[in-house]
Write a structure and sequence with these properties.
By secondary structure, the protein is mainly beta. The protein contains 4 helices and 24 strands. Helix 1 crosses helix 2. The two termini are about 35 Å apart.
Length: about 400
């Protein structure tokens, strides 16, 4: 009751004073108090709704479904008995990441073009608003494709024209421009071409006028699994987290637009009717070839007890927890790397919790006051189990504040 009266008096005083002659800090304090009252006095809700300018709530969750070992194991998706990459590794520098699924039904939009024999001269194929013309004698006009000596050769030329693959100017017209929508074509056995289109528009047209050719449908179609995903990550250790959305291409990789020093999370945005994501979706750093993030089948997002933030922010860890689905002893450590710009593998132990197989299977530790970590830094959960392949989960909460 005293606190409520004090807040009300503070608000009354703030509104009773003119903003003239008051500092920006005083005005900001008044606004923040009003916001807290508008949210029923719930400061956590104030942060979650974005009303506390420059302050963000972060909840991190990780799970090693069958992967916590008797030696140090990070709590993340790839720490499993089948994959077993026990320790997560960040790229050595900002890297593009190849995003790919191991299931063809995790695809945004695709069509299949089949040649049952070689195509005839002057036949056309339409993809979206662009018309491709097949010629026995190639002329240098946008969209023209040379008919090869066989159906397979013609498909190769068509793929090169769609992808604008560098050639000797005899396979497709060098005047050809890219389609209006980003896409890529790949060859398949049996004179087939797969076309992957970065669009959610399933009315995107694919037609042809040759009896030997067939799309199978007059428009592309999305897969039964994940179609688009969102990547959350840091492009440098001095810039706040950014996001980008990616159209999946099934078992064919699609590079991120950004280069990342760390990926904090990948989540499925849109999906088909059957699965959230049918296969395992991985993000692999270029050059380093390290897998830095994974979505397990039907999980819908990464489950990694790892979080990175830049030099422009400070983290205040509110709590962390650990639990297990198995009857085994588990020791879990909260680790911090305070210098990720120079050192990616050495972490400092900040706290340890233990579960016993004869005791509780879940425990949480609350920091009071909150545990402060200045950026840039990586925070992660790492543990050991009394027996290999233990199913262990955990996470931590933090408040992130712009400096």
């Amino acid at each position: 009751m005293k606190r409520i009266l004090f807040v009300l008096l503070l608000v009354g005083f703030a509104f009773g004073q003119s903003n003239l002659g008051r500092t920006d800090g005083q005005v900001k304090m008044q606004n923040e108090v009003v916001n807290i009252l508008d949210n029923g006095g719930d400061a956590a809700l104030n942060v979650a709704t974005g009303d506390a300018e420059g302050i963000y709530g972060v909840n991190v969750f990780g799970r090693a479904i069958s992967g916590l070992q008797t030696t140090a194991t990070d709590l993340w998706d790839r720490a499993n008995a089948s994959a077993t990459q026990k320790v997560w590794v960040a790229p050595t520098t900002a890297r593009l990441h190849a995003i790919v699924s191991d299931d063809a039904s995790d695809v945004a939009a695709m069509g299949i073009w089949t040649l049952m024999g070689n195509i005839t001269d002057s036949s056309t194929c339409t993809i979206g608003d662009k018309v491709y013309l097949f010629e026995s004698t190639l002329t240098n006009t946008d969209g023209n494709v040379h008919i090869g000596a066989s159906a397979s050769a013609t498909i190769d030329n068509f793929i090169a024209a769609i992808n604008l693959t560098v050639s000797d100017s005899t396979d497709w017209a060098i005047a050809t421009t890219a389609n209006d929508v980003d896409m890529i074509a790949t060859v398949e056995a049996g004179d087939l071409m797969n076309l992957y289109v970065n669009t959610a528009d399933t009315s995107f047209v694919t037609t042809d006028d040759d009896d030997a050719a067939s799309w199978g449908a007059t428009s592309i179609a999305g897969g039964a699994g994940a179609r688009t995903i969102r990547v959350h990550g840091l492009t440098s250790w001095d810039a706040a987290e950014t996001t980008e959305d990616i159209y999946l291409r099934g078992v064919y990789s699609q590079n991120t637009a950004n280069s990342y020093v760390a990926i904090n999370k990948i989540e499925v945005l849109t999906k088909g009717a059957t699965n959230v994501n049918a296969g395992t979706i991985t993000a692999t750093a270029a050059t380093d070839a390290s897998v830095t993030a994974v979505i397990l089948p039907d999980a819908g997002q990464t489950q990694m007890g790892i979080y990175s933030f830049p030099s422009t922010q400070t983290a205040y860890i509110t709590n962390y927890f650990v639990g297990t689905e198995d009857s085994t002893d588990v020791a879990m450590s909260l680790l911090v790397n305070p210098e990720p710009e120079d050192e990616l593998t050495k972490f400092v132990t900040r706290h340890v919790q233990e579960l016993q197989d004869t005791g509780t299977s879940f425990i949480q530790f609350d920091f009071n006051p909150y545990f402060k970590v200045e950026g840039p830094a990586i925070i992660k959960l790492q543990g050991t189990a009394a027996a290999n392949d233990a199913d262990v989960f955990g996470g931590f909460g933090l408040i992130l504040k712009d400096n």
